[in-house]
Write a structure and sequence with these properties.
There is one protein chain. By secondary structure, the protein is an alpha+beta fold. It folds into 2 domains: 7-36, no CATH class; 37-203, Glutaredoxin (3-Layer(aba) Sandwich), CATH 3.40.30. Helices cover 35% and strands 23% of the residues. The protein is built from 7 helices and 10 strands. The protein has helices at 8-20, 26-32, 61-64, 84-99, 120-128, 141-151, 192-203, and strands at 38-45, 50-52, 58-60, 71-77, 106-112, 135-137, 156-158, 166-168, 173-176, 181-186. The strands form 3 sheets. The chain has a 6-stranded mixed beta sheet with strand order 1-10-9-4-5-6. A two-stranded antiparallel sheet has the order 2-3. Strand 9 (173-176) and strand 10 (181-186) form a beta hairpin. Helix 4 (84-99) crosses helix 7 (192-203). The chain is globular. Mean pLDDT is 86; it is low at 1-30.
Amino acid sequence: MRARPTSPRFAALAAWAACGALAGCDAASAALRPFHGVAYDPPAAAPALRLPTSAGRPFDLARATGDSGRAALVFFGYTHCPDVCPTTLADWARARRLLGADAERVRFVFVTVDPERDSAAVVRRYVAQFDSTIVGLAPSRAALDETLAAWRLAAHREGGPDSAYTVAHPAQTFAVDAEGRLRLLHALGTRPADLAADVRRLLD
């Protein structure tokens, strides 16, 4: 009887299982293990992200990752956010501590989607509450709209025109590898330990 062809997915899972039973296979099994985030398949070059930081310095994601050999986590939120944003940044701070020395090779980037209320000073104070190394980006409305279009994202006000409005925005964290490619999407609530584990793999 002729053998049936083995699917690539089955072959990978079989290799992972076999390798797990042998000594010295840690690196190989880690390469086959699924990420905790949703993977881009295939990975794609990260869209442009060139905006001023809350400290007034220019920031360019391409130079911060691919040109420097660092990975990055990118999140679009705002400082008046009641739940998603503080939860995400608190999880980032925990993940950064878990990364230990590897944290120096990762940029954590918060982009405000509420330029009308989030001045550079407001963003700077906000991100510092969670971790002093988080890069806060404070674009103008025009620069933000251009950036959102490049990333194919949307953010818009909800509620009345007064200062109590909320902003609908993406809840995911975008993970960019050390070659400047979009690799993963992490959902809100991803455990800091899982986030740190994925980032370490992107640095390998």
